[in-house]
Amino acid sequence: MSPEELRAARDTVIPDVIAGGLSVLFCGINPSLMSGATGHHFARPGNRFWPVLHLSGFTPRQLKPAEQGELLSYGLGITNVVARATARADELDAEEFREGGRLLAAKVERLRPTWLAVVGVTAYRTAFGDRRAQIGPQEHTIGATRVWALPNPSGLNAHWTAQTMAEEYGRLRVAAEGGFG
């Protein structure tokens, strides 16, 4: 992908991968320029979402970003707190996150997934006004939908390895399958 193609993707919006009644609706912070350019969620090389999804047992094999539509067959979907593509999440301001949180809550109320999994605890804190939120299941619910804050799979999040991330995502998978969260 050329630098020009990536620059042209700024502020584009990519379609959600959603349906009513999902087991888990994963929610990214916002699309990268690579995602904006390709139309696929978590498309940036180095993003660990797809490998971690497989390592945690959500998918039987590692999907490619272009195969994102297959998630629906597993009862999974993807959306974002903020819909527009940027080079970095720090280009978004707090008001954009809060507005994204309001729009996300309305989407969740309409679609009624069992779990909303926000991949990025800082984004969750800002979008939902919960400054003390930690990784894991949250007290906050949206209607009957439970909420889980997951580690951000970006390659920039060096505090988490793919394996430790997969363990946390796996805790959510167990809860989504009817275990305890």
Tell me what the structure shows:
The protein is 33% helix and 15% strand. It is an alpha/beta fold. The chain has one domain (3-176): 3-Layer(aba) Sandwich (Uracil-DNA Glycosylase, subunit E). Strands 2-1-3-5-4 form a 5-stranded mixed β-sheet, with helices on both faces. A hairpin with a 2-residue loop joins strand 4 (136-142) and strand 5. Helix 3 crosses helix 6 (162-176) and helix 4 crosses helix 5. The model has no long low-confidence stretch (mean pLDDT 92). It is an enzyme of class 3 (hydrolase).
What's this model, at a glance?
With 181 residues, this protein is α/β, with parallel strands linked by helices. Helix content is 33%, strand content 15%. Helix 3 crosses helix 6 and helix 4 packs across helix 5.
CATH class wording = Alpha Beta
- Domains (count): 1
End-to-end separation in angstroms reads 40 Å
Strand residue percentage: 15-25%
Strand arrangement across the biggest beta sheet: 2-1-3-5-4
**Residue share in helix:** 25-40%
Give the number of helices: 6
* Global structural class: alpha/beta
Biggest sheet features: 5 strands, mixed
CATH superfamily: Uracil-DNA glycosylase-like domain
Keywords: DNA damage, DNA repair, Glycosidase, Hydrolase
Enzyme class: hydrolase
Pfam families: UDG (PF03167)
Protein name: G/U mismatch-specific DNA glycosylase
Summary tags:
single chain; 181 residues; alpha/beta; Uracil-DNA Glycosylase, subunit E; five-stranded mixed β-sheet; 6 helices; hydrolase; EC 3.2.2.28; Uracil-DNA_glycosylase-like_sf
Topology (elements, then pairings):
Layout: H1 3-8, E1 24-28, H2 33-38, H3 49-55, E2 76-80, H4 94-111, E3 115-119, H5 121-128, E4 136-142, E5 145-150, H6 162-176
Parallel strand pairs: 1-2, 1-3, 3-5
Antiparallel strand pairs: 4-5
